[in-house]
Every structure is written in C-alpha cells, then in structure tokens.
Amino acid sequence: MEDKTGDAFIELMRTHNESISSFLGTKIVDISSGYAKVSMEMRPEYLNFYGVVFGGIIMSLADQAFGCAVNSLKYPSLAVQFNTYFLTSAYGGDRLTAEARVIKSGRRVSVAEVSVTNQDGKLIARATGTDIIVEK
Amino acid sequence: MEDKTGDAFIELMRTHNESISSFLGTKIVDISSGYAKVSMEMRPEYLNFYGVVFGGIIMSLADQAFGCAVNSLKYPSLAVQFNTYFLTSAYGGDRLTAEARVIKSGRRVSVAEVSVTNQDGKLIARATGTDIIVEK
Amino acid sequence: MEDKTGDAFIELMRTHNESISSFLGTKIVDISSGYAKVSMEMRPEYLNFYGVVFGGIIMSLADQAFGCAVNSLKYPSLAVQFNTYFLTSAYGGDRLTAEARVIKSGRRVSVAEVSVTNQDGKLIARATGTDIIVEK
Amino acid sequence: MEDKTGDAFIELMRTHNESISSFLGTKIVDISSGYAKVSMEMRPEYLNFYGVVFGGIIMSLADQAFGCAVNSLKYPSLAVQFNTYFLTSAYGGDRLTAEARVIKSGRRVSVAEVSVTNQDGKLIARATGTDIIVEK
C-alpha cells in the first residue's frame, strides 16, 4: 500500500461528482484524512408507507460518508460489511448530515463509524462498516 | 398484537406503490406471510466512482424486501437495525433480486434474512435485520 | 413500563454476583443509569491457537457491560442482537475494560455502544447491541 | 495466498486442543473445507441473572465454529467483525451445536454464517462474521 493514495481520492471527491451523488442529491460538505461529512435533503420521494424516510435512504447517506472517510486514507478500498441502527425517524423536508470517522486504518482493513443527525442535531442513526483495501 | 395485521399489509403492497419504490424503480415480485421478493434494475445513475453499483442501492433493495417480509406477518413494524455483507460487485444493467425470509417472529421483535442475487443467480449480498412491532 | 425498574437492577448488580461473572472473572467496576464499566483479566486459558485472546471472550466482556448498561434503565430486558468489531489483538495478562453507554432508550427497544480497551488505553474492540424491553 | 493452507489448519484442529476450548468445554464435532460443527454443554456457571445462558457464551460457541470454518480454507486468518442474533433462550443442561459455512472466500476476506441450535433442533442464534486473511 502506497502512501498518499488517500490524498488523490480527496482531490477527486472535491472536484468531481459521482453518478449516485447526483441521483440521491448528496453533498460532500467536508472531507479530510479519516473524516467525511455528507448532507442530503429528504425529498418527498424518499418516504415509505409510514410517511417517514425509507431506511435505505438513510443507509445510502451513511454509506457515502463512510466510503469517503475510509478512502481518504487508503484508496482504492471497498466496503465488505455495513451495519446501521435506526434510532429516530426522519421526515420529508429534513436535512440529514452524516459524519464518518475512521477508528481503525490497517494494512488490509479499515473500520469507520458514522453518525446521522437531522437539522436539529437529533441523532437519527449510527452505523459502522468494514472496508477492505484493494491492492494495486 | 392482533392477528391478520400482516394480511392487510400484503394487500396494501399488492395494490399500492410507495414513493420510494417509484423513485428507486423497485418492483415487488412476490409477497406472502413471512416472505418477500423484490427486484430492481441497476441504472447508470446507481454507479459510484469505481463503476460498480453503490452499496446504498443494494442496501435499499435488501431493506425493501426485508420490510415487506416482516410487515407481512406483523404490521405496523419498524426496522431498528440492518446489517449487510457485500459479497460480489454489481454492475450497470444488472437486474438484482432480493429475497427476504423471516427467521423469528415474536411478540415484540422479528428478525429476517435477505439474499440479493443478480440475473445469473450469483450471490451479491446477504443482509439481516431486526424489526420492532409497533403497538397500536 | 414502570419507572425505577433500572434502579432495582443497579442495586442487584452492586450486591450480587452472576454465575457467569464468577466463571469468567468479570468485575463490575461502575454502574449507573445508562452506563456500565466492567473489567476482566485475560487468563492463559482465554487464548486461542494464535496466542491471542479468543474473540468470544472479548464479546463476553463487551456483552456484560452492554447488559448492565441497558438494564440499568429498563429492567428486565434481553439482547436480541450484538455486533462486534475486533480492532487490535489482546494478549494473556492484559486487563481489559469495557465501557457501555446507552444511545437510545425507547419504550420497546434500547441500543447501547461499547468500547473495550486494554490497560494502556488502547482500543481493542467496539460493539453495539439491540435490547428488547420485556413487559411484566 | 498459498493453496493447502487450510488443510494444515484442519489437521491441527483434529489433533490439538486450544486453551479456550478446554476452558469453555467446546468440542469440534466436524471440520472440512469451508465448514465446521462445534458443540458445547450449557453448564450452570454459564447462566446469567435471568437463569438463561449468557449471550457471550453463545457468541463464543458461534465464534469458534466460525473460526474453524474460515481457517479451514485460508489459514492464518483473523475475525474483524462478528454479528449475532439471539432468537431463543438457551438453558442450563442444553447441548448447543454451532454449524458454520463459508459463503464467500476471497483473496483478502472471507464471510461465514453460523446457526446455533439446541438438542431439539430449535434455532437459538444466527451469526455472521468477516474474516481477514493474514499474509505470510
């Protein structure tokens, strides 16, 4: 694993947009080594039958922050596992923010934790994922 | 907890469409007591920088099958936790299918497992979630 | 759900010992509403073939701190799900400490997070669990 | 990664005993490439305050089957993550059996699923873990 691989990823994320980001409307607010902050507005089309935001949308937001955080240190790398706890419902019109922090960055594997909060700072979800560094 | 609550949900899912389903393009192929099968085409906008399908999309598909399976027995209920393993990458143009089966249906909590496969039957992901029954 | 149920549990844990605690040699160092700290010495019999502490022992320590933390608020309750990340190996002779904090305490479900550290303050594992409140 | 590394592990487990196995009283009933079956009697000292088997004991049994299954294909390897669902309580005197099957065996990472059942074939727990192959 070479050094500086993460820096290239950070530069890439600051200057380019992923297809999935455009589709979901996620915005990378901040990214640095081992950290990322991504936000997203909860559109009406994200709601399920209960009138609350669909879990998959919250996981998508958390996953993007996760991916940014782990790749900012070791790039390229791929998530192998992702676990989410849904603590409070989110609603249409909410602006959710996901903050991810790497808690382990090894030669082969990284682990990062994510907090998803709403515009009032209320904790909506917590997530943790495992990321495998891809050898080039 | 009343009996037959799940039957009302099954009827609802057979006759109505959720906002999130229209947005993501998911289709409920099959739903019965404790089981659901949902499919989804992998559009170009679902890809990330690596050119593979974004993890959040796969989790969304798995989550919808999960939600259908657990609510088909106890309705209404809400996911509190969802864990996914990404086993093989999915690509643009793939048609993924998620099958969810309830493995525990208690008075307060349900657990269901999900397999996500592609059009060739290859296992793309496995997921398991915890669901809390909401008392009316 | 009655108030004060957790207080009875705290009193119980301060004055009595569980069979499993005696067997494993765990010690409840601190317990208060929504929080618990449990420590345990890594005996030679806890090692696996690699000469490091067996994962199940670390999960047992984390699980006990988790159980104390969630029951200190709502008692009786039972774990339905427990997820652990092993970040650094632990060795024979280490004294590990698990600290658990409840991050959600609802009417039906609680979620708590656990940090396991060694005698040097190094993070050995992180865990999160889901707990269901048992109605009396 | 060399071939045949798992075979050496299988031979090792058939002829030797780990310290932790002696301590917990686990018995490897069967081990082959990508599969392991481990059983364990639930002694009185494994019970918690509720009079049911402590979750950490069930996770220990599942973890040992998991470790045997993944190392039977790629050895040495180490668990980085382990997630357990507790579906039914186990009691003193029960004999629990954990069966683990590898569902992904990659160059860098393996994933295996575990079922824990009691002497009546009742499903007590399900678990899944992520395992990192250690390069020699």
Written account of the structure:
The structure is a homotetramer of 136-residue chains. The first copy, chain A, has helices at 5-15, 19-24, 55-71; strands at 26-32, 35-41, 77-86, 95-105, 109-117, 123-133. Chain A is an alpha+beta fold and 136 residues long. In chain A, strands 1-2-4-5-6-3 form a 6-stranded antiparallel β-sheet. In chain A, strand 5 and strand 6 (123-133) form a beta hairpin. The radius of gyration of chain A is 15 Å and the shape is globular. The mean pLDDT of chain A is 94. The A-B interface holds A 12, 16, 18-20, 22-24, 44-50, 54-57, 59-64, 67, 76, 78-86, 89 and B 12, 16, 18-20, 22-24, 44-50, 54-57, 59-64, 67, 76, 78-86, 89. Strand 3 (77-86) of chain C pairs antiparallel with strand 3 (77-86) of chain D.
CATH class of chain A reads: Alpha Beta
Query: What is the count of helical runs of chain A?
Result: 3
CATH architecture of chain A: Roll
Span of the ends, CA to CA of chain A: 8 Å
Strand content of chain A: 35-45%
Helical fraction of chain A equals 25-40%
Biggest sheet statistics of chain A: 6 strands, antiparallel
The helix-and-strand class of chain A reads alpha+beta
Mean pLDDT of chain A: 94
Question: What spatial form of chain A do the alpha-carbon principal axes imply?
Answer: globular
Instruction: Say what the CATH topology of chain A is.
Output: Thiol Ester Dehydrase, Chain A
CA radius of gyration of chain A = 15 Å
Spatial order of the strands forming the largest sheet of chain A = 1-2-4-5-6-3
H/E element order of chain A? HHEEHEEEE
- Low-pLDDT stretches of chain A are none
